[in-house]
Amino acid sequence: MSGWKPGDRREGRDAMIRVDQAGEYGATRIYAGQLAVMGDRGPAARAIAAMANQETRHRAFFDRLMAERAVRPTLLQPFWNVAGFALGAVTAAMGPKAAMACTAAVETEIDRHYSAQLDALGNSDPELSAAIADFQADELEHRDTALASGAEDAVAYPVLSGLIRLGCRIAIATATRI
Among 43, 103, 121, 136, which residue's CB has the most CB atoms within a 10 Å radius? Predict the structure, then answer.
């Protein structure tokens, strides 16, 4: 790529696609960890399974876009595999409200992240913008479902939520670059 400079428009879009695919992958792993602990018992598990199905659809879109646009995946994907599953399993082991607290925290950060991406994209990439807007609506629905399911009643909610949100911000910044 002669003439390429860091920050070029293509690299910016590639980074968006890379981090979004990594995030959707991480979400599928969080839900897999939660469902491995919770099984299919109770309303929380059923809600999580429905959210997991939407995340799988989001991930499939970004997987396809990465292949079509020749965007490299994050080098940290093996880490997200383990870390996402572990986060899901640990929060589910703490109980359904903690599992929902995890969802509320993650989706709060993803909403902020997707809003920033939509602002940065403007009208420059209609396909990507439309998908992000669609997925953002799903993520907000997930957050609202989690809050309505007692997320804020989880033990040590402010600490748990704060740590998960910080982890999300670190993951976003890292996957954008690596």
Answer: 103
pLDDT tens by residue, 20-30? 998 889 889 99
Tokens representing 47 are 């809600």
Residues in the chain, total: 178
Would residue 38 be called left, alpha or beta, if left means φ above 0 and alpha means ψ between -120 and 50 degrees? alpha
Task: List helix spans (H) across the chain.
Answer: 9-38, 42-69, 77-94, 96-121, 126-148, 157-177
Res. 11 pLDDT band, cuts 50 70 90: low
Alpha-carbon radius of gyration of the chain: 16
SS3 of 72, please? coil
| C-beta neighbour count of 68 within 10 angstroms | 10
CB 34 within 8 A of CB 93: no
Q: What is the pLDDT of residue 9?
A: 44
